[in-house]
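chain below, 113 aa
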Amino acid sequence: QVQVVESGGGLVQPGGSLRLSCAASGTIFFSIYTVDWYRQAPGKQRELVAGITSGGSTNYAGSVKGRFTISRDNAKNTVYLQMNNLKPEDTAVYSCNIHREYWGQGTQVTVSS
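prediction:
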């Protein structure tokens, strides 16, 4: 059973930075899985923020392009989401999805002064 744990969320001021981590356990196939970060703000639908394939190809939502960077460390079974120049509209619960199948519990990101 694959388990997914996100961490790194918190409260940050506008313009600040956070790095989220998505760690997987219970699988030896992490390196071949696509991993996506999603977010859901109160009253809004969940949206895809960024994704990374096994080969390292990345994609971003237009609203975060140039501010967020997704990366992976297969030796640690972990994917990171570096978030810079955060805006209040980035406030949401951020969740990680592995292989379009396994979800974590999410981590709260709040951007506020």
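The mean pLDDT is 97. The CA atoms of residues 66 and 84 lie 9 Å apart.
thats it, cya
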